[in-house]
Amino acid sequence: MTDGIDDAKRALRADLRERRQLRSEAAHETAAAGVKEQLDALVDELGARSLSCFLSSPTEPGTQEFIRDAVARGIRVLLPITRVDGLLDWAVADPDGEIADGLFGMPEPTGEVLSPLAVNDVDLLVIPAAAVDRTGMRLGWGRGYFDKTLGSMEHCPPVYAVIFDSELVDDVPRDLHDQPVTGVVTPTRTVTLAPHRR
């Protein structure tokens, strides 16, 4: 049974990755501006003073402008750093800080490293995804970092995945370890999908 789920996930991820790579630079710039507007509104609505986010890669809906602006507004932003053991360390976002390729070639900060527990203090988690379905089930990129993080949090704040509009789908293949999200942020809207779990 699990093999069938894994195969379905792999096929869907490959399709989504290809679609993302076909987007024009102009489309990515427009998406980044939309995502920033939606995330700014979400932060204001939740009154978040601290949050986690991720440094977007060139094919992802852009988060970097949002992060710079949030830090300038006095919001504490934690950025993930991948570890070989499947956990995430964190670093406080610094607009003047260096960015390097992480374990899997994704952009990551190079500042002072905080432990996986640092994320327990945030008011909002903003995470990447390949797709999310209408029940809030998230399909990640297959390495399990965010599923492990969410699954280990005793008091999880609201979790929003950043995706393109077409990546909010009716259904995604799911496994036992997969963790749902509260909602999604796209370039055009923010959608709350599942009740917030504490």
TrEMBL record:
Main EC class the enzyme belongs to = ligase
InterPro entries this protein is in?
Answer: FTHF_cligase, FTHF_cligase-like_sf, NagB/RpiA_transferase-like
One Pfam family recorded for the sequence: 5-FTHF_cyc-lig
Q: Give the enzyme's EC designation.
A: 6.3.3.2
Q: Name one GO molecular function term.
A: 5-formyltetrahydrofolate cyclo-ligase activity
**Family to which this protein belongs:** Belongs to the 5-formyltetrahydrofolate cyclo-ligase family.
Report what the protein is called. Answer: 5-formyltetrahydrofolate cyclo-ligase
What is the species of this protein?
Microbacterium memoriense
